[in-house]
Amino acid sequence: MRIHHEQVTVISKSLDGVRKHGLSYRLRASRSGLSLVLVMFTLSMSLVLTYSFIQTQSILTQISENGSKRDLAMNAARAGMTDALNRMNSLDWAGVRDQYQRTFQSDSDGSSTYTVSFAASGNTLDSVLELEVHSLGVWTSATNNNMRSEYQITAKVKLVPRLAGRTILPGDSADANDSIPNAGHFDLITQYALFAERGSNSLILDPCDRIDGNLWLDDRLNMYDDPAWSSSIRSTFMQDLGNRFVTFPAGSTNVSDATVHYPHPIAGNITFYETPSSSVRNDLSNLKVSWSTTDQALTIPSPDYSHFSTYRLYAGGPEYQAVALGSSLYNVTLGPTPDNPLGIFYRSGSLYVYDNVIVQGTLVSTSRITFSGKGIYITAFNWKGMDGTPIIADSDLWPRIPTLVADKIDFERETQTTIEGAVVCHDDLDGGGGSVAYPDASDIQFTGTATVSSIEQPHSIVSLRENQFLGNLTADGNYAIWLSTSGSGNTGTTGTWYPIVGIDNQNQQLTIRGEINHVAPTGYRIRLHKQELSQIRGPVCAERFNFRRLNEWVLSSSLWNNRAYFWDLENQLRVILGYSLIGFSEWLEIPLNYPGWDSYYQQYGLNLEPTLHIQHLVDHEYRWEPPLFQPYDGGEANADYSGYRWSLIDWSESP
Question: Which of 10, 230, 370, 451 has its C-alpha lying 20 to 30 A from 501's C-alpha?
Fold first, then answer.
């Protein structure tokens, strides 16, 4: 009989059975544990994947939120740039110092703002009208200020001033003009070649002085009183000038219709504020000069030199500093720079200008400017590059500030100075005189026709139309070329002397110092350059003028009587011989009429070739002082055209 206990006992006693059945037990236990591990591993992996999924979803959510916040910052930056550009094209723009911040959007999560600022752009002269406009958009969390997103937009724009005379395009109006109005009567004053504000002797004029253009004189014109000649000889001389250099159209004897030729002393009409005396009227009649009176008293605006020492090109634009000068200039060339784009050179006190000074810009002195040296040339900057190409749009229409601004101005007798542009003198201007002096060089003389084009100041290129051998000329200023030009008003053919500073024999071209453009062929003469010569090519205003004569014209009364006697004697012989009569002024020019006299007279005679010459032949737009521009205010009628106009030239964005 078998019982269960025995089976268990047998199992416990059987070694093989124990081994077998024990192994079977352990295998079953191991498989059961592995299953548990697999289940746990599966659960773990499931948890990891679930966590990773949750984490990924969190990151994606965060990225989405960050992108959303960046978009808010970007939209704020773009809104700021739109606001800035609209503001710059309106009367609300306060200029480069205008920096402001505005809220673009705000909610419970946070707020987005934009900050706008302006800065000068570039470091070249042709970039001085450019500005960088910056708009920074920022989103900031409402709960944590450290949580923020930024977006930056930078636009580069260039001011496009609307100038009188420009081409009017669609969307523009001829009434819109950004040029800043001039102070007082300056616009009227610059219409005259010479404006004398004060009376007594408003203008003293002597032999070898010439003015091309109209004059405005407060009171007396004092002419040709320095030579110690009798009143009858003086009258004879002035009558001869009128007969010799003034012509009338057929059928007219009205002096207002006349054409006045070089070197007549006054080639223009004179406007008097005070009616001239009978003696002055008689002089003008002898000279055949047209004149009239006015009841409009014009005055030179009061000076404010601080507007030149620190200035802006346009209202609201970057600020510039004039270059401070010492008491004198010698052997130097000065010009505009990006830090001083108008080329203003400022002297607090008196300034003496000596040899070899070239200024492309404006000389300002709070006291007196005295020109004493040779080879002096001053001109206001014309905004052209080396080849004459404008570095700004409409450079020919671009307004210029005066070339000289001073309390007093004096051109010493021995100076050799040329000024191109407007001259403003708040007191008296004196000058001229000297003597007819030429350099020690070969006496070369050429004539012909030429065309001329200006390049970078202070130079122009003359192209000769006839072949000349130029090998004997020198480019050191010892030679000059006379270029014939047409006058304005009743001024006939005139011209001026330009020193030759460059020679191209192969291409038959000369480089001259001076700004002139003459597309049509014009007459020229080349000869030795006068060493004592003062020239102003532009309108000049002062309280009073005293232009001196050459020293050689100051002869004793007996010598003048001697000159008149021999002139009359020659005309008597001409009548007998059947020759035409010769005028007194023409007779005085002939060196052969001075036997036994000083060598000067035997070489040059007494002629009226000017050693002081003022010309106002080119109409430029002049501004009384900087700035040159301000935003146009069209009022209600032209409100759409108010403000400046800007051209977009670059745009960049960065998160």
Answer: 370
